[in-house]
Write a structure and sequence with these properties.
This protein is about 55% helix and about 5% strand. With about 475 residues, the protein is an alpha/beta fold.
Length: about 475
């Protein structure tokens, strides 16, 4: 009974987290349903801090009290199956962590069921991929304050570090809050990746640049205000030569983007809560359309698009493109934080935007210089969770970049280059900063055909007109 934590599920993420824990002198004991693979892993990496058990009874016997179990298994039924198998060995005060990309509603349900037995369930977002799991991820644990008190020393040891050297982990909130924030994180990730892809397509299609030339531009962007993990990895992706054919690998990758569901969940949740999330939703829709390869190919033959000469030379475009991407990313974040704000109100969570932006500074996929700006913006704001556009430093940045943003969007539209997320990010900004808007016309139409009533600008009450 001297092990600190059990890790259930030794896939790539589970293995790397196990190694991360062991490297930090935390005694971890692993289990996986594929015993041969697990034994090979232990044979390669096992030591006094990293061992293996063949069943859950063994895990329970070797863990210190309160027992801590970290599940790294696929979301959905597999999580419930592991919980069911573990239940005979769970005791009051034990902590069960789900580190997969589970739906936050499932985490709320599981926390409620297990808490009735005095068992702590923690839905924890883990971001950083394989490299982050091994060298330091961004961690977003939900659950009870009591469970956080127990887990904090362990999680702080294995987490990435923010720009000030502090661990990229904080207690997000009760029950499903951790998985909810991770879901929105992934939604923002969808939006940012789509913005980058649109910039890539503009440079490739309109300016006829080859992959290494685009890599040079992205590398330059990555050294400035767009400094981020995603721009870092974009450069080697674009420079990679193909081993199976001539040219560069990126030109031989089929243009069909996959998705595992978290971006779609974010968009669906925004619709349910009545929150505007156009850039992230557009990014999800863009992946959906990309999957319709044959239909797109057929239709492209019916709508031949003539090649056009750029209306602005490349050298002059690049500062505008950099500004537009920066502003578009701020817009994506603003939408994500507004969704979290509404969810916190409805779920009874106390989400700290200052802390959330801080723990995203390191380890996670969307880690970027911009997160430092957002961290400072939220920490300096008087309101606990202001709209990002209302913070002075963000306002100054958006006003400075607005003309570039508009110029790049117009350039794409004029040349038939699809830019769903960049257009949506600008439209969200314009809609959010326009008063009055066009909704009075909508209300007039609704009242005419359905007697849905309307309110007036000059007096109190609800009105209906016989048109």
């Amino acid at each position: 009974m001297n092990h600190d934590i059990a890790l259930i599920g030794l896939g790539v993420m589970g293995q790397n987290l196990a190694r991360n824990l062991a490297n930090k002198q935390i005694k971890v004991i692993g289990w996986d349903r594929h015993e041969e693979k697990s034994q090979a892993f232990i044979k390669k990496y096992g030591n006094e801090n990293l061992t293996y058990c063949e069943d859950f009874s063994c895990l329970a016997q070797k863990l210190k009290a309160p027992r801590i179990y970290l599940m790294m298994v696929p979301a959905g039924e597999p999580v419930d199956e592991v919980i069911a198998k573990l239940e005979p060995f769970l005791e009051k005060g034990d902590i069960l962590i789900d580190g997969g990309n589970s739906n936050f509603d499932d985490s709320i349900r599981r926390e409620k069921e297990l808490s009735e037995r005095g068992i702590h369930f923690v839905g924890m977002g883990v971001s950083g991929g394989e490299e982050g799991a091994l060298n330091g991820p961004s961690l977003m644990p939900g659950g009870s304050t009591e469970s956080w008190t127990t887990l904090q020393p362990i999680l702080e040891k294995i987490a990435a570090r923010d720009f000030s050297g502090q661990p990229c982990v904080t207690h997000i909130g009760e029950n499903g809050a951790g998985h909810y924030v991770k879901m929105v994180h992934n939604g923002i990730e969808y939006g940012v990746m789509q913005l980058m892809a649109e910039a890539y397509l503009l440079l490739k299609t309109l300016y006829q640049l080859n992959p290494p030339e685009i890599a040079d531009i992205f590398e330059q962007f990555g050294q400035g205000k767009l400094n981020s993990f995603l721009f870092d990895i974009a450069v080697p992706i674009l420079r990679k030569k193909d081993r199976l054919s001539e040219g560069y690998l990126i030109d031989h990758i089929l243009d069909q983007a996959g998705q595992k569901g978290t971006g779609r969940w974010t968009a669906i949740d925004a619709l349910k809560r009545g929150v505007s999330l156009p850039s992230i939703t557009a990014a999800v829709f863009a992946r959906n359309i990309s999957a319709e390869k044959e239909a797109r190919k057929s239709l492209s033959e019916s709508y031949q698009k003539s090649k056009k000469t750029p209306q602005i030379e490349l050298k002059k475009l690049l500062p505008h493109l950099e500004n537009a991407l920066h502003a578009g990313m701020i817009s994506c974040y603003a939408q994500g934080f507004e969704l979290m704000k509404k969810a916190a109100e409805e779920q009874g969570w106390e989400l700290n935007f200052d802390e959330i932006s801080r723990i995203w500074e390191g380890g996670c996929i969307i880690r970027a210089k911009l997160l430092g700006e957002l961290h400072q913006a939220f920490s300096s704001a008087k309101d606990h969770s202001p709209h990002l556009f209302s913070i002075q430093t963000i306002q100054e940045s958006l006003k400075k970049n607005l003309e570039s943003w508009q110029k790049v969007v117009c350039l794409g539209i004029e040349n038939s280059i699809p830019m769903p997320s960049l257009v949506s990010s600008l439209t969200y900004f314009e809609e959010s900063t326009t008063d009055p808007c066009s909704a009075n016309f909508i209300q007039g139409l609704r009242d005419y055909f359905g007697a849905h009533t309307y309110q007036r600008t000059d007096r109190e009450g609800v009105f209906h007109t016989t048109w």
